[in-house]
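User: Show me an example of a complex going from sequences to structure tokens.

Assistant: Sure. Here are the input components:
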Amino acid sequence: MAKVWVFAEVHNGKVDSTALEILTRARDLEGAEVEAVALGPGATDAVGPLGEHGAAVVYASDDEVFGDYVAQPATEALYQLVQEHSPELVLFAANYDSRDIAGRLSARTGSTLMSNVSAIHDLNTAQHAMFGGSTLVDVTLEGSPKLVLVRPKSFEASPSGGQAEVAKVDVAIGEELKKAKRLERHEEATTGPKLEEAPVVISGGRGLQDAGNFELLDQLASAIGNTAVGATRAVVDSGWVPYAMQIGQTGTTVKPNVYLAFGISGATQHIVGMKGAKKIVAINKDEEAPIFQIADLGIVGDALKLLPQLIEEVKSRKG
Amino acid sequence: MNIAVCVKHIPDPNLPGELDGERLKREGVQGVLDPGDEFGVEAGLQLKEAHGGEVTLVSMGPASALEAVRRGLSMGADKGVVVTDDALRGADALTTARVLAAAISKAGEFDLVIAGVESTDGYTGTMPSSLAEFLGLPQLTYVKSLEGAEGSIKVNRQTAEGYHVVESPLPALISVTAGVNEPRYASFKGIMAAKKKPVEQWSLTDLELSGEDVTVNQRVSGIGKAEERQAGEVVEDDGTGAARIADFLKEAKVI
């Protein structure tokens, strides 16, 4: 039996959903003894859900030091846990904090870190996608421990109803690791669902011509309801909208019920972040735009002309 | 403030990518300075303008990596270092970090190391963190905005829900997101001046690293095609486009 660990982030008292997705997959891996690690305020409260999704043991510490300082304290604690318990495989979600910690742990252990994994075949093999998701590459995992970063929404979380044993983590964190300090935490007031959770996502690309036209997407989102607005890397790089709205191979991955792409050509870098949507509608002036190859409904036309019309049509159907 | 900025020369992201056996083809393809790194170079230049000091560009890659460095020098950086070695072909993020750490340590004493959040071609996003660990530096990643001061740096760090304000004493490493600044264009004068700026070219031996230190540990066991989504209906908007979409949304039970 090999120990497979899932590093679980906890924010505002809630376990990150990707950790639960990964646990669901991990418990089906042959030969795996699944455990979890949770570091920072709320860790002990997370033991319940982690256990319910398959962790037999949760190494937990509520110490504020893990929340107060970026990456270094968590890396040290995780490294010491790894030394003590020798897991064969450690799985991380490809989230902001986890990527930082996984990257540092990779250097600390000398173990290569496999990123952007969207499938795990067995304890020795994982898969990631290249070229917008059209090419799948299987990689043999190596290193002690093997380190893997898993993209959110690669797996579906489902509880198995187990209970986890708590193993309290007690690691001394030296002053030299307390350098990058979090002074303030700001939550952007989003009206509406989070991008990665929204059942409907509407996105804009360069075809919207101007940053100001994103206002039309906001209006459409309000009209439809329960909808989040995203964007392509191109418009984020141009400064039209913040990085938080970026959907693509860098940025957020979304798997909504419906994805509407306005003025988006369908560059591979964007496609990989949204091709998992149940239904895709694309509007673009160019009939050759690659996005039409993956759209269930494609409209060749001017997004700017169509948007105001669509807002009206939606409003009238909703009554 | 002495600043080291990591830059990468990548295959032009606007061209379709190609595989060379099992690896992304890098040699003999049209390349550019990774757009993500332009933000890093700009951040370094702005800090230098505010606090004095020098900006050194550091890059690892085949001989063409020199072009990325020249581009950054044209923008205003002061000097460059390129590490090239056949043994580095196919290097993963960890190896890249190890090599860059050795190059940065050899190149001088730096108050700040800057990298982009993730490369446009590899997009692992983990190299900067591994680099920070090798250099023993605190890291402030996903930087949306920053303020440098004497001996410290304060940033707004992107998070899933918004941002955190993070501060650290120097020396430190930061990784910057797109939109942290607006990279300047290289002026003609800048391009000409770049030709005279010093660029060191090092191999693994110069860094006292052996082939074993940089053994690539990711073995590709298979490559295949993903199941493609089928294209659905594509129609011209003859004025009824909006209605068709609205009907589609209604059928999907979204409205």
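The lines above are the inputs; the final block is the predicted structure for all two components together. The first helix of chain A runs from residue 17 to 26.
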